UniProtKB/TrEMBL annotation, chains A, B:
It comes from Chitinophaga alhagiae. PROSITE patterns: CNMP_BINDING_3 (PS50042). This is Crp/Fnr family transcriptional regulator. InterPro entries: cNMP-bd_dom, cNMP-bd_dom_sf, RmlC-like_jellyroll. Gene3D superfamilies: Jelly Rolls (2.60.120.10). CDD domains: CAP_ED. Residues 10-53 form the Cyclic nucleotide-binding domain. It comes from the Bacteria. It holds the Pfam family cNMP_binding.
Amino acid sequence: MQHTIARIKSVYPLSEDRLQQFTGMLEAVELKKGHLLFREGKTCRDLYFLEKGIARAYCSTGDSHLTFWFGTEGDFLMSFNGYVNNSAGYETIELLEDALLYKVPVAELEHLYQTDLQFANWGRKLTEKELIQTEERFISRQFKTATERYKALMEEAPGLLRRVQLGYIASYLGITQVTLSRIRAELK
Amino acid sequence: MQHTIARIKSVYPLSEDRLQQFTGMLEAVELKKGHLLFREGKTCRDLYFLEKGIARAYCSTGDSHLTFWFGTEGDFLMSFNGYVNNSAGYETIELLEDALLYKVPVAELEHLYQTDLQFANWGRKLTEKELIQTEERFISRQFKTATERYKALMEEAPGLLRRVQLGYIASYLGITQVTLSRIRAELK
DNA sequence: CCTAAAATTTTACAAATGATAAAAATTATT
DNA sequence: AATAATTTTTATCATTTGTAAAATTTTAGG
């Protein structure tokens, strides 16, 4: 449970009993590669921490899938848009390796938020950090060329390139797999 | 103060005295078109509500500016990245019209977050809503062609196109002004 | 109303990326 | 190890978008 606990702690300092309380609510789930944790159009009100494994989130566009997020050990997965809009999410989350996750219903978290100041601030900080990550990715998308984005990804997350097939990486970078191949050939 | 109050209320329900307390902390500021509220590289720890006027946020890329956000009546402005990372922000915010704003130091807000459950949850919801907006824009950027994005903007924010010059709109859409002109010519 | 400045559109050409198909390389399965 | 399935690369051509410069339109100030 180390990655999950480290993540929870890193978000915002919780007292020891609150940390106990939180981890006590978590249910371990083992799932196989290929499993879909969320499905677009379906409601899912659970938050997962990814203790082991790797996952991607994608949206469907007519024929193809568009990967817009990767998560690895210590990351958490939830449908923010489904939760905030109280609707079905627009993303599907697929496990790309056999995985160990810890699960908690968002309703239970919400209850903590409504009743406990520390948890409410924990939830705020969780969202704030997620927000600036998304914002930074958004801006880097606008700023940088495809080649620069690929280089940056290699530096920031070299493990990703080893664990995830290039078609998904290309989609994540906003280019076709053919273009990514060209970029890789150029960089050799 | 109507837009500002409406915005505060829409984020998360606050009791009447908390609303009073909040609005009592706000300081009215009138500023001229062209004024820079935030400057990239500088620290600014204020939150502003835009009561009247229109603003854009941009980053510098070598020679040119990249507009990545517009705000109008009822929107709020702050440097989330500067605040969360406790660093200087990477964005500049420029007023595109003479404006009336209400200002509050983030430190005062933070104090409310740390001491009051309702405010802590208000801050959480504020961030959650901002997050899904950013996420949706990020995905729509990847999904849609430049033409589709322009059409969507025309529908969602027709006022923007009347109030903001096209060079900024083009940048916001992630294309050059020439490309935007071509798109507009096609749509005629 | 006139002029100067700024913003927008148009044009011509160059560069980047996409689409498609096929070949090569890698991985999984028997 | 051999075969099949999947993934990645390569090649070709079409399309989109960018760059630069000029022409036009709009805006702001006197």
